[in-house]
Amino acid sequence: MTNVSESAAEPGTAITDFGIDTTTLSTRDALRDYASRLRGGDIGSLPAILGLIALVVLFSLMSNVFFSLNNIANLLAQGAGQTIIAIGIVFVLLIGEIDLSAGTASGVAGAVLAMHYVDNGNLLNGMGSTVFYIFNAMLVLAAILAGLLRIWPGVAFSVLGIVLTVIGFQANPWIEMLLAVCVGAAIGCITGFLIAKIGMPSFVVTLALFLAWQGVILQLIGEGGVLGISSSHVLNEVANGNLSTAGSWVLCAVAAGGYTAVTLGGHLRRRRRGLVTAPTPLVVAKVVALGGFAVAVTALLTANRSPSKLIVISGVPYVVPIVLVLLVAGTYVLTRTTYGRHIYAIGGNMEAARRAGIDVTQLRASVFVICSACAAVGAIVYSSKVGSVDPQAGGLNTLLFAVGAAVIGGTSLFGGRGRVADAVIGGAVLAVVSNGLGLLRQPAAVVSIVTGLVLLLAATVDALSRRRVAIAGH
C-alpha cells in the first residue's frame, strides 16, 4: 500500500522517473518495463522530444544559419511569450477545461501596461473617465468574486490593481509589469467564477470573453493605434536583454546544481525508506545529461555573437530565467503540494474528487486565475520583444500557439495528464518550426500549414495513447 500511495502522489512523473521498485528490478528490467508502458500508450512527452530533435537536425542541415549563436539566442526569446502562456494553460487542461480567452486576456494586460507607461501613470487621462471607472469596477468585481470563492491571491492581486490605477503612480516599468499581472489575475477571477460557480461551459465562456477582451483592447488602444514601450530600458530588456557572462554561469550553476540536489536527494531518501524509486544508474545518467546540456548551452550563449568587432553581445537571454522560474514553481505546485494532487484528481474523475472532499468549485476557478496571470506575464515578454502593443495584441495565433504548445508537449486535452514541462517542450517545438521555416524563407501560409499539422499530429497521438491505456486497463 505504501508504494501505491507514494507513486500516486506525483502524477505525470511515472514515465520520466521509471517508477519501479529498485529492490526487485535491475536497470535492464527497468528499461524493459518502460518500453512496455510505452507500448501500452503511456508515452508522455517522448513524441515531442523526438520531434524536436528531428526538427533541429533537419533545419540545421537545410540552413547553415540555424545553429549560429545569434539564431540560438533569438530562438529562445522568440518562443518565450507563447510558452509562458502555455504554462498557465496546462493548469486548465489538467482539469479537462479550456481557456480560449487567454490570448486576448494577455492583450488586455499588455494594453494596460503600455497605456500606463505612455500616459505616465495617468490611466484616467488615457482611458477617459467612463472607461476608467468601468475598468476599476471590473477590478472590484473580480476581488468580490475571488472572495466568494476564497481565492485569496485573486483578491490580493485585484485589490492591488485598484490601488495602482486609482493612486496613479508615475510611469515605472516595475509598476507597469505588476499592474499587468494584477489585471491578468482579475480577469482569471471573473472567468473562473462564471465557469466553476455558475456552471457555464468553459468553451462558451472563454469564447465569449475572447471576443469581449478583443473589444477592450480596441477601446484602450484605438483602431490602428500603437503604444510603444521600447523607449523604456527595463521593459525593452525583458525579452531583448541578456545576463552578464558571470550571471549566466551563476544561473547555470544554480539550475543544474538545484536540479541535481533535488533529484538525487529525493532518490536517496526514497531508497532509505524502501519506497518505489528509479534505479540509481538511470537517475545519475539523467542528472549528468541535463547538467551537461545546461553547461553546453551556457557556453554557447556566453560567447560573443555580435557581427561587429566594436560591440559585444553575449550572455543568456533574460527570458530563460523567467521561464525557468515559472517551470520550477509550476512543477513544484503540481507534484509537491496537495493543491497540485487535487488538480490531477479532478482531471481524472471530478465526481470522485468531489466525494473525496475536494473543494472542486474553488479549485476549478483557481486554475483560471493562474492561467490568466501567466498570460499577463507572457504579454510582458511578447510586448517587450516587439517593442509595442497594438490592437491585435493577444489575437491572431497567440492563443492557438499557446494551446498547441501544451498539447504538443504531451498534456492531454481530456484532463488528468500532463506537466508544466510539456508547455516548455511544446513551445520549443513551435518556436523551432517557425524559426526554421522563416530561415528557409517559406511564406506564412506554409508556416501555418506545418504548425497546424504538427498540432493535429499531437492531438492524434494523445487520443490514440489514451485509447491504448484504456484497452490495457481492461
UniProtKB/TrEMBL annotation:
Membrane topology: Multi-pass membrane protein
Gene source species: Nocardia aurantiaca
GO molecular function, one term: transmembrane transporter activity
Function, as annotated: Part of the binding-protein-dependent transport system for D-xylose. Probably responsible for the translocation of the substrate across the membrane.
Principal localisation: membrane
UniProt keyword annotations, A-Z: Cell inner membrane, Cell membrane, Membrane, Sugar transport, Transmembrane, Transmembrane helix, Transport
Transmembrane segments: 46-69, 75-95, 130-149, 154-171, 177-196, 203-222, 242-262, 283-304, 310-334, 363-382, 394-413, 420-438, 444-464
InterPro entries: ABC_transp_permease
Name used for this protein in its record: Xylose transport system permease protein XylH
Any single Gene Ontology cellular-component annotation: plasma membrane
